[in-house]
Amino acid sequence: MARTFIRQETQIYSSDTYDDTITPSLANYETNPAHIETDLNTLRSQIQNFLNRDGASFPTGNWYDDLTQPTSLENGTIRGIDATNAALHLVEKKRVLRDVYDPGNDVTVGNGDNFVILAVGELPTNTTAAIGSVTTLGTVGAYDSVFTGNTLDEVSGTNALNPKNLCMVTDASTGDPILSSGRVIYALFQTESNTDGSTMTGTTPNRAKLSFVRPNSTFDDLEACPVGDIEDAVINYATRERVRLEDLTEQDFLKGAVVDVPAGSTPTRQSIYDNQGTTAVNVTTNSTLDLEGAGLYWEIRDDLEARLFAIIEGSAGGTSVVQVASDTDTFDVDAAANDFLNGASFDTGAAGTTIDIGVTAANEINSGGSLAVRAGGSADLTLDGNGGELYLDDINFSTEASWSQAGVKVTETTTEITTYETNFGGEVSLFNAINQAYSRSSRVKGYAIVTSDVAADTDVANTTAGNLDQDLPDYSGVGTFVDDVDVYLNGELLRNGADAAANHDVYPGTTPSVGMLKFEFALKGSGSKKDQLCMIVWNS
Fold first, then answer.
1. Segments of the chain with pLDDT less than 70
2. Annotated domain spans of the chain
3. I want to staple 52 with a disulfide (CB 3.0 to 4.6 A). Which of 59, 228, 293, 538 is the partner?
4. pTM
């Protein structure tokens, strides 16, 4: 059968049937659709699925329904995808406080003191200071401008007895709360620095302090703990750490959100990494890792303990190595610029396969064997002189005594390029130009408009048939109609047949001398958009 041509005004129109009940599957959505209406209906069905799915079965409802307002518990907000995305972000990043208790961190209160300035080894596990009423992730503290003695500087919380920088205090030996006149002793966590987000170091100006407090006699506020009830005590304390909701672990919902570090344990890199979780380490000073000895290495391994990346010390012998090891599946470099000062060598594993780029400081790419340059897939390959001339050269040029230059130039002057465009009708390929030069000694082109509707397998011409506004070119003298005549219908190149039995798009009419044709399908010659024909006759 002949091909069917799409006509905008009659064939691309609104759907006759609107269906949003097609169940999602590869067959239903990709394999079975045979026309654009079915494709549109599968999209409508998927929209319906996205809007109304609530269970294992395909949903009821309509793809064009508006979003439904949530009403469970209390009325909610109608949200589209972007608004849902924003709301989910707010949930994930919601700030919450958790108590972080380190029972192995013993702190001794001084004689005659009801406060303690923490040394570096007594600081909380999270040393980022979230100071005041902020949203900063870190250990919550209040700025204490005096920083000597006991003060009541606090970060306001839900009530006067529960400021956000309130710390639980326990006896280091028993783990029990410490009482003062029957009231539990707490501590206010305070910082010497007023720079939110700064790192506590145990030295000025980034020290931290505990001021010990207790509820007052009416239990409506906090007051300083008497010195005699806390001096000389050895205590552990739990700070309040601000984290995001997404950072909470399953244990954070137990025991009032306490994160325990086992008592008496020695901190290791493993426990530090585990406690750090997904929170980034913010380095505010230069960091240096020294490998003190030949052959020492620092490496990153995969789950099977295979080396992925390593730095190997070999400075004494000039053999230091930064290695991306063979168990690395992909080495992905996405830097904006990649600078190889001394060039690079590729495929160095076997003799004769190495390709050096810039290793020889002479603007060269050198290979151990034959060099093939290919553009993979559908990518284009461009050789660009970019400011100079481009030569094609091989060994035969060097052995031909009469040829003096290095190979043959692609072009000599810009005039050659403009002449090429003129001769071959634009920026055509070399093979196109060669084929044109071979086959195009002359040609005849003609146009005609169909003046009345024509049934399939009917002569089409102006002379005799009277259904074109003018005759197309004479093709009676060509070698074959199939090879030497091009017929276009509305800009589409048709497939020629020798006769009707070929069952192709177009074949010779009764009178080739007047350009008469026959088509395997009907032509349109009525209305405002009539079919247009173009014929090119090539000399054989």
1. 1-12, 254-267, 271, 436-441, 540
2. 95-276, 295-328, 388-439, 443-538
3. 59
4. 0.46
